[in-house]
Write a structure and sequence with these properties.
This protein has helices at residues 56-63, 65-71; strands spanning 2-4, 10-12, 23-25, 31-43, 46-54, 79-82, 86-87, 95-96, 104-105. By secondary structure, it is mainly beta. It has a single domain (2-98), classed as SH3 type barrels, CATH 2.30.30.240. Strand 7 (86-87) and strand 8 (95-96) form a beta hairpin.
Amino acid sequence: MAGEDSGGRVTHTVRLDRLIGRRVVTANNRPLGRLEECRVERRASAWVVTEWVVGSAGLLERLGLGARLVFGLSRGSSYIIRWDQLDLSDPEKPRLSCPIADLRRAS
C-alpha cells in the first residue's frame, strides 16, 4: 500500500514477515544477499523502517551476540541499506535502487 503523508513523503506498508529472508538483487539482477534484519524508529504513532541489514551481520543482529559466540559466526559480507535505497515495489523481489558502492558496510 502506498500513499503520501502530511510531510509530503511517500509511505508504504509491507509485512515484515514477508520480507525477512528475501534475496536482494542489484539493479543489474546480481544477488547481494538476504534481508536479515530491519532497524526501526518510532515516529508519532507508527514504527518506520529506517535501515535494512543484508547478510550475516543482520542474522547475527537478529539472533544476538550469543549466537555469534556459540556458533562462531562472523559478519562476512554484509551491508546496511537505507530505506530509500531499497525498491520494494515488488516485495517478493526486493531490488537495490543505488550502486553497491553507496551502501555502508556492516561492522
